Amino acid sequence: MEREIIKYRRFHGLAFTENDIPNVFPSHWHNEAEFIVALKNGCKYKIDGKVYEPKAGDLVLVWPRELHELLYIPPEGVVFIQFSSYLIESNSDLSAASHFMTDCHLIRQKENPELAKKIRDLIYKIKETREREVFFAESRCKILVYEILLLVGELVLKERSQSLGSEIFSDKSWEYIRFACSYIAEHSREDISQSEVAEKIGLSQYYFSKLFNEYTKMSFPSYLASIRVQNAINLLENKKLSITECAFEAGFQSTTTFNKLFHEQTGCSPREYRKLHSQNKEEEKGGKYEL
Could you please report the per-residue DSSP string of 184-196? Predict the structure, then answer.
C-alpha cells in the first residue's frame, strides 16, 4: 500500500486530471476525495476491497483516506477531480452527512441519468473555469465542488430517509445529529463524553445513543476517535511537534490507543505517515498524475 500526496499545481486543494492517467495503479490512499467520470466501458476500480466496474457515463466516488486501486483504465477512459477533505470537514452539515455519503461509491447513469449528467457537467465546468484567466477562479471552482457534494448528499440522505423511515429520519432528528456532530468536532480535543453531548442538545443519553447509532452507523466512541485521528493527521504535518504531542493535542489520552486507532483508520502508523509526507514534500513532485 502506498500513500499518495497530491501536489496542486494551480489551485490549492483542487485538481482536474484528464491526461497521462496510468492504465493500472497499485493500492494507495490520500487525504483528498477523488470523483471520477468514466468515459469508456471497461474501467475497473477497487475501493476498500470491493470492485466497481462503471460503464461510460457512470461516476465513481473515492472518499478521503479510502484505500483504492486502479485495476484497469482504458486509454483516455476517465477524467477526474481531486479535492481536499477540508472542503467536507470544515462544514458541520457536510461533515455530519459525510458518514452516509462515504457509503456511496458508484452513481450509475442508467439509474440516475439526471443526477449523473448534472455532476458530469459540474466537473467539466471546473475544468473550464480553472483554465480561464478570471478573477476568483479558485473560489468559483470550489463552489462547484460544493454543488457536487450537495447533489451527492441529497441523494444519499434521501436513500437513508427511505431506509430508516420518516419517524426516525425527520428534520428535527437530523438537526439533533448535525448539532451533535458539530459539537463533537469543535470539542474533540477535550475530554468529552456521550452524556455531555446528549445534555448539550437536550436529549437523554439513551435516546441520543440510539439516534446517533441509527444515523451514523457508528458508536459515539468510534465517531469521536475518527475525528481525533483526522486532527492528528493535520498535526503530524508540523515537524515541530513530536508524535506524542500530536496524539495528546488531537485529544487522545494514550499513545497506545492513538497508534492502534490511527493504524486501523489509515493503514499505517503515525510515524510512517509523517515519513511519507516528509519524503513527498522534499521531492516536490507530489501526486502520481500529471495535472
Answer: HHHHTTS---HHH
- Could you tell me which residues are beta bridge partners of residue 62? 34
pLDDT in tens, 231-283: 898 888 788 999 999 999 999 999 999 999 999 887 789 998 887 655 544 44
State the pTM of this model: 0.76
> How many alpha carbons lie under 13 Å from residue 58 in its C-beta half-sphere?
20
206 contact partners, CB below 8 Å, separation of at least 6:
none
Residue type, 25: F
Judge contact between 59 and 37, C-beta under 8 A: yes
Give CA–CA dist 251/245, Å, rounded: 10
Q: Is 19 exposed, middle or buried (0-12, 13-18, 19+ CB in 10 A)?
A: exposed
Amino acid sitting at position 88: I
pLDDT exceeds 60 at position 286: no
Q: Summarize pLDDT for 187-211 with one digit per residue, the tens.
A: 999 999 999 999 999 999 999 999 9
Run of H or E residues at 151: helix 137-164
CA proximity to 25, closest of 287, 268, 276, 286: 287
Cα separation values, 50 from 22, 53, 70, 105, 239, Å: 20, 10, 12, 10, 35
> What is the C-alpha separation between 59 and 45, in angstroms, rounded?
11
Give the C-alpha separation, 85 to 230, whole Å: 10
